[in-house]
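Its record is quoted verbatim for completeness.
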Amino acid sequence: MKALLRRLYSDYGMPSRLAMHERLIRSGRDAGFVQTSVRDFFDITKAGQCAANKFIVHRHDIDTDLRTTRKLLQIEKKHGIKSTYYFRLSTLDFDLMHEIEEYGGEASYHYEELAAFAKKHKIKDPALVRSRLPEIREEFRKNFDWIEKKLGKKIRTVASHGDFANRRLKLNNAEILTDGQLRKDCGIECEAYDAALLDHIDMYIADRPPPQYYCPASPFDVIGKHDRICLVTHPRQVETNWKENTKANLFRFYEAVTW
């Protein structure tokens, strides 16, 4: 019952945390942090310039709620910082993605073909899912090429989405990109969970529903203690959107019942 009440509060009663996000941006700026996207930070690491500055790498996973996504972008434009926005197939908005890229941020792909394939084909055996990886990778390739063409810009980094099906299967969508040839063919230089990126991060923080809000610590508490911070946020954890949350909850229930 307590978990249900927390979920209801998170989805329908939580006050907006947009002002807190703006306060965090100001705190990072005042502490001398460069606040940038995954793509730009990856380029900095490749150039061997990571130690020259302090960084907050802002990554937004757009699982739901384009309304709040737009609000986040406007705040970041106001303060002149750049972020990465990873869009699922279900949240793609190419006008918004073009706006992000034109501003200098990164709009890219939050992929989930492994979980989607398992649910579509009613597969619950992890070994059987792995045996179908060639088909899953081909589906990823088609989606990736289509998104890149519509975006009109080379996509260089991507991030795997975490679905309830992944947790049940104990398989990560990132297994798709363990195929080096697929990465090369698509021109993907970095997956957001690659060691080549995360080895340069001192503190990796992801947002959580209330009452925790952040894991493993609040970014406000680690600014000044760590020089390279990666902050992963989701619009759903920033501001409630009754319509989108209800839609997402009902679809999640439908998928769980039909899988």
